[in-house]
Amino acid sequence: MFRKILIANRGEIACRVIKTARRMGIATVAVFSDADRDALHVEMADEAVHIGPSAAAESYLVAEKIIEACRKTGAEAVHPGYGFLSERASFCEALEKEGIVFIGPKPKAIVAMGDKIESKKFANAAEVNTVPGFLDVITDAAHAERIAGEIGYPVMIKASAGGGGKGMRIAWNAGEVRDGFERARSEAKSSFGDDRVFIEKFIVEPRHIEIQVLADAHGNCLYLGERECSIQRRNQKVVEEAPSPFLDETTRRAMGEQAVALAKAVDYQSAGTVEFIVDKDRNFYFLEMNTRLQVEHPVTELVTGIDLVEQMISIACGEKLRLRQEDIRLNGWAIESRLYAEDPYRNFLPSTGRLTRYRPPSEGPSGKAIIRNDTGVVEGAEISMFYDPMVAKLCTWAPTRVEAIDAMADALDTFIVDGIAHNIPFLAALMQHPRWREGRLSTGFIAEEFPDGFQPIAPDEGDLNILAAITLAVELVRKERLDHFADRLRPHSGRISPKWEVRIGERYFPIALEEAGVKPPVTLFMTIEGENLQLQSAWKPGEIIWRGEIGGRAVNAQVRPVLNGVRIDWKGMSVTSRAMSPRVAALDRLMPVKTPPDTSKMLLCPMPGLVVSINVETGQEVKTGETLAIVEAMKMENVLRAERDLVVSAVRAKKGDSLAVDAVIMEFE
């Protein structure tokens, strides 16, 4: 077994590998850029080596710097994680020349499967089902348009060297093919240094289901079941689960056997994933093979009990697989939610900044469930514009799918993240969505269910009563503490008013308080909208998580103080509320509504990012839909288009500018 390995990666996956290596008694070496000098993976590793500036192209993507770090520390092997150099055959070959083991497949398999065009040709030759398409190099937009017409719309334009949803576009007509071709090429060149793209038929109502395989150097290969990865946004996975609620045992076996056949055909040696598109009739088509550890591997580990990182390390050492296909059993259900630094209320645009609070739910058993959180950050860490926006992967396991979903909902309700915009509100709302809970999924789920973007779940009447009860309980406990300050001029009378009103949005909820004990733990008996409720809670001022029981129902919500009230986040709902006396409520109804400033004649930067291009100039007349500017954030290009016919009066930014959220890019007449 290796004595020391180097992890050529950062963030949560570097931390994940370090945990397994530590358990196996293997020393670890971390590498870090300027931006990651104080990162968690650097702190966790036994040694750490600085490899360059913040930009990945000058640090994590420079093979020579990784190899030099191995020489410097005496690392015998390199685990690449995912992304960066994990699927670059030249890196494997360079390591081999230095006598350093690559913890992953051999270059032959990476070359055969790492290029999407070549992998489909190889799969066709191996008689693996593939999606109809054009697999040769496409020269220009006109060529792309001609090919798409021959295949038939809709089509998928994809970067040959792509991954993570970058360099990928769906086109429903010739115009979208031309624009998508140029955007896909540009993103592919920026992200992967390779601007080749190909086109294939887009399967309507598709599911994205992938098979995990393990193979050693002795001809042994097996599959570990499947992962359902259909919940995607902009072709980027958001939520994954294992097993799939769609597959039957016959289809699972057929997909697994085909995945194993493909892995054997390329002499695969390591953990790998064969991805399939599955249509509504359970017909499946080869999509690609990822010759590395997948982001979503934890759900497979949770349902099989197999540590995939440990298996990769053992295989790289030349050991035989100790598992046989008949040993693989899928136990229970696991779900993974990817926590991204992105604003769901701004169409999921990237967010950067410092984590002023970061407090994940406790890992380990929780009732029938198990909670796991793979993360690479701590409170106080900075989410940088240089890397992927993923902050953590929250996973739950339970005996059944519904129990795993409910455990995920509770865990999300208690996951505290402040300082950046994040997608927890969306993930929490998704866990309540009927279609998701029923397992009626497709890769178009988010676009179909949230066509106008995401907004918080609107509370129903029962939810509003619970939110009003929390608001009043928080206010009574807060007032009780304030009223007993030692230097208060007028002592507290000890009497709690029986009449209250809670404002949520524009609605006022009268509350009759029957009994009250306002020193934590509180017990309140109240009537709201004709409903009698008993509330119990040990919440104290300063705590973000409000835990209690209302009307016999366990409630975990997040409460944060805002001006004259609180903001409550609970199960995908987010409301601002205020508890007050009836007299104050009467006056509150008379207050004028403050109108926001008019920015209709400005183009504001929707997220922190780099200006890739300014496509108009002062005095230019622009038609609806024309491109005004392109801003890049976290490796994704965002095209800003005119929402109406207009005339540009001033341009306030230029190519290369780094802009903050709501910075003025240009103004209109």
List the helices and strands and how they pair.
Elements: E1 4-7, H1 11-23, E2 27-33, H2 40-44, E3 47-52, H3 63-73, E4 77-79, H4 89-97, E5 101-102, H5 107-114, H6 116-125, E6 133-134, H7 141-151, E7 155-163, E8 166-171, H8 174-192, E9 197-201, E10 207-215, E11 221-233, E12 236-242, H9 249-265, E13 270-278, E14 284-290, H10 297-304, H11 308-316, E15 333-340, E16 342-343, E17 349-350, E18 353-354, E19 357-359, E20 364-366, E21 369-375, E22 382-383, E23 390-398, H12 401-413, E24 416-418, H13 424-432, H14 434-438, H15 445-449, H16 461-483, E25 499-504, E26 507-517, E27 522-528, E28 531-537, E29 545-550, E30 553-562, E31 565-570, E32 573-580, H17 582-588, E33 602-604, E34 609-614, E35 621-622, E36 627-633, E37 636-641, E38 646-651, E39 658-659, E40 664-668
Parallel strand pairs: 1-2, 1-4, 2-3, 4-5
Antiparallel strand pairs: 6-9, 7-8, 7-9, 10-11, 10-13, 11-12, 12-15, 13-14, 15-23, 16-17, 18-22, 19-24, 20-21, 21-23, 25-26, 25-32, 26-27, 27-28, 28-29, 29-30, 30-31, 31-32, 33-40, 34-36, 34-39, 35-38, 36-37, 38-40
Helix pairs in contact: 4-5, 5-6, 7-8, 12-13
